Amino acid sequence: MYKKSSICIIAASLLTWATSCANDNPSSRIDGSIDTTGLPPVETRKANANYAPAFKGQTRIGGVKTKASYTVTMLAEKLGKPWAVIGLPDGRLLVTEKSGYMLILDANGQNSKKITGFPTVDDRGQGGLLDVALDPSFTQNKMIYWSFSEKSGVGNLMAVAKGKLNEATAKVENPTVIFRATPALNSTLHYGSRLIFARDGNLFVSTGERSNLEGRVQAQDLSSGLGKIFRITKEGKPAPGNPFIGKPNVMPEIYAYGIRNAQSLDIHPETGELWEAEFGPRGGDELNIIRSGKNYGWPVITYGIEYSGSKVGEALQQKAGMEQPIYYWDPTLSPSGMAFYKGT
Predict the structure, then answer these.
(1) In this predicted model, which residue has the larger pLDDT, 253 or 342?
(2) Displacement of CA 299 from its chain's centroid (Å)
(3) pTM of the prediction?
(4) pLDDT classification of 5: cutoffs 50, 70, 90
């Protein structure tokens, strides 16, 4: 996504994530035929913190240049406030708009059709109509799933809903909320909201901890839906095999916890593992492989500091029982989405 609200598509034979289409040229081609090794780190700015990594290669590795050629093409512009874009089976694009509707664009990013009928969203701050995912049987049932910020009392929360996409009427039919990441808080930040279907047909959902101290501590609370990765059925129930099913005072939908604000999820096309990237505070953006029942540490351990410059908690980076990121960034790069390239 361009900052000026346009859509770009990147094709490359590599893991593509947190990609910024920042080139002002609407279409450019880069030839990576020159192989390079031993490059210095791409990041040269001073880190926010002087924390030592847990292992070699966890941060600031040497630069890498791909041998593959790739093309960046701008497909659409003059959109509103797009949040997510996914492909439809016929090659068209389905785009969510934060203000509460979706767009269907053809494969060239043109001929927009507006889809309405969604529940009311709270689009203040980082909220609104957020991610969207197609049912694994979409070709037959036309069902879509979406995440959004929903008003609740004096606050709001991240909710997941589903409905049938009816292109003839340009509406979503029978929209039904199937899951809510309770409790609601008075915040307009850190909803998480990424959706990805696993190979077994269950749905992974990420949530943030709402970017305030009240929500932050709940990332470690298994009775709270804040700062978690969930695994639910298409009806919004706990997926069979979830790690905390049957345990008292625990949300059985939880798959992993200790998350700050994850807007990046994807399934590794070869291993089937769930990969995740999340926003750190001031420094400490993370790349993780999410495994069942694991604790990813926030806010107890982090490689970042507070925006004010003070330490987070006890300024710990490692603690027994808490997972290390496989990679982290300081300064931050704000990983808002990622995808494995699945072409040939």
Answers:
(1) 253
(2) 19
(3) 0.91
(4) low
Backbone angles phi, psi at 113, to 5 degrees: -120, 125
Q: Which residues have C-beta within 8 Å of that of residue 326, sequence separation ≥ 6?
A: 58, 287, 288, 289
Given a cut of 60, whether residue 26 has pLDDT beyond it is no
Catalytic option among 190, 216, 231, 294: 190
Domains of the chain: 1-44+60-78 (no CATH), 80-340 (2.120.10.30)
More confident residue, 228 or 111: 228
pLDDT at 64: 85
pLDDT at 16 over 70: no
Kindly indicate the confidence band of residue 93, based on its pLDDT and cuts at 50, 70 and 90: very high
DSSP bridge pairs for 264: 277
> Alpha-carbon distance 318 to 311, whole Å?
15
Residue 190 bears catalytic tag: yes
Amino acid, single-letter form, for residue 169: T
